[in-house]
């Protein structure tokens, strides 16, 4: 019976030692987790503004590119409008000259008919 008690006491001491070691490892792991959490918070505090700044820069660059494209398109529109107005003026002038030429042709034909009689 005494040997059995000694054996059980050894097992208890071994379990207590194992429990102590496990508690120590748990404490160390908890501390490391807390440190990692703090580091994550710190890096998030620094990284988030950087990503925000990068995102803002990307948007600013895209906005500048869009503004340049808008300016180019507006210039093309002005040029196209000018060319269309110029073409309209030339058409109107050609139509006027054609009408005058047709009237002159009718007069010439009338004179020709009168001369032939």
From TrEMBL:
Keywords annotated in UniProt: Coiled coil, Repeat
Highest taxon in the source lineage: Eukaryota
Coiled-coil boundaries: 5-111
InterPro entries, A to Z: Tropomyosin
Entry similarity comment: Belongs to the tropomyosin family.
Primary role: Tropomyosin, in association with the troponin complex, plays a central role in the calcium dependent regulation of muscle contraction.
The protein's name: Tropomyosin
């Amino acid at each position: 019976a005494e040997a059995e008690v000694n054996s059980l006491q050894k097992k208890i001491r071994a379990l207590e030692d194992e429990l102590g070691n496990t508690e120590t490892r748990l404490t160390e792991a908890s501390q490391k987790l807390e440190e990692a959490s703090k580091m994550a918070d710190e890096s998030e505090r620094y990284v988030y503004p950087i990503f925000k700044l990068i995102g803002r820069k990307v948007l600013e660059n895209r906005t500048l590119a869009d503004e340049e494209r808008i300016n180019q398109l507006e210039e093309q529109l002005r040029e196209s409008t000018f060319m269309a107005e110029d073409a309209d003026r030339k058409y109107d002038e050609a139509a006027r000259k054609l009408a005058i030429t047709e009237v002159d042709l009718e007069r010439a034909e009338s004179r020709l008919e009168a001369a032939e009689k």
